[in-house]
Amino acid sequence: MTTSRLTLRPLMAADAEPFAAYRSDPDVARYQSWRAPFALADAERFVADMAVRTDLLLGDWVQIAADHEGALAGDVAVGMDPAGRVATIGYTLAPAFQHPGLGREAVGAVVDALFTRRGVHRIEASIDARNLASARLLESSGFEREGCSPAAVWHDGEWIDDVRYGLDEDQHAAWARRPRGRPAQVQLVAIARRRRAP
Fold first, then answer.
1. pTM of the full predicted structure?
2. How far apart are CA 166 and CA 152, in angstroms?
């Protein structure tokens, strides 16, 4: 798949070094399931396994490379349930690509494809409650926060709160139809305190 700035493709052998580099960044790994540093040998094995996965796999995960102008900007992971109706996503961006909206572009393209090309009914995501950037990315992609399980995940020596997001096909269609232009009129109104009943 291509977007205005990205090519979404299978991981390939040449991705191993940049993949290991951004997974080794402590700020990137902080909210993820792995620990930094991420060894190059582990990256080579992982990329080799993913390189042969040229399509989504029911009951399994596939990591999709997000390529920006020939550089690996990050990846989007897609896990499919055995029936192919519910997908779970995860995503990681290299630090140099985290601010210009590329993450939202990559996630948005994968989400659109899952609903329109693969007939998925629902997409889920789960994030560390402290990861505000990830929450903003999901919410700006139409996902709704569905709940938080306090101290639910043991990671890197501590219990963390797990925040769950979801988006189904009807919500996605409504999100796609939302108004995107500037409003024709903006009206400011005075806000007054309500008096409490005696």
1. 0.87
2. 18
